[in-house]
């Protein structure tokens, strides 16, 4: 059975592709993680302020999605 995580704007991501869910502002302000983000394709799936970033590995490619849903809320959803 495949399990999915709703990350906003009717977008769902397969849970087994998720590498991590992080606070977007903290990642953007950290020197090392901001360098990583600059080298990734980032898709904005939320409306308004980006609160979280979901990093996935799909078909051997790293992808990132920003969402207006907080990382804490997404982590809680992910553990259900």
Q: In words, what does this structure look like?
A:
- The chain is an alpha+beta fold and 80 residues long.
- It has one domain (4-78).
- 28% of the residues lie in helices and 41% in strands.
- The chain contains three helices and six strands.
- It has helices spanning 24-29, 31-38, 71-78, and strands at 4-8, 11-14, 18-23, 41-44, 52-58, 61-67.
- A four-stranded mixed sheet has the order 3-5-6-4. A two-stranded antiparallel ribbon has the order 1-2.
- Strand 5 and strand 6 form a beta hairpin.
- It is globular and about 35 Å long.
- The mean pLDDT is 88.
Question: How many DSSP helices?
Answer: 3
Strand arrangement in the largest pleated sheet:
3-5-6-4
Main β-sheet description? 4 strands, mixed
Spell the H/E element sequence.
EEEHHEEEH
Number of strands: 6
The general outline is globular
Strand fraction equals 35-45%
SSE topology:
Elements: E1 4-8, E2 11-14, E3 18-23, H1 24-29, H2 31-38, E4 41-44, E5 52-58, E6 61-67, H3 71-78
Give the tags.
two-stranded antiparallel ribbon; four-stranded mixed β-sheet; 3 helices; alpha+beta; 80 residues; single chain; globular; 6 strands
Quick summary of this structure?
The protein is of the alpha+beta class and 80 residues long.
């Amino acid at each position: 059975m495949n399990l999915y995580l709703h990350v906003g704007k009717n977008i769902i991501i397969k849970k087994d592709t998720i590498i991590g869910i992080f606070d977007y502002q903290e990642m953007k302000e950290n020197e090392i993680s901001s360098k990583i983000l600059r080298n990734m394709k980032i898709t904005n799936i939320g409306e308004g302020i980006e609160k979280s970033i979901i990093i996935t590995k799909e078909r051997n490619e790293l992808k990132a999605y920003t969402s207006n849903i907080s990382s804490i809320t997404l982590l809680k959803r992910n553990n259900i």
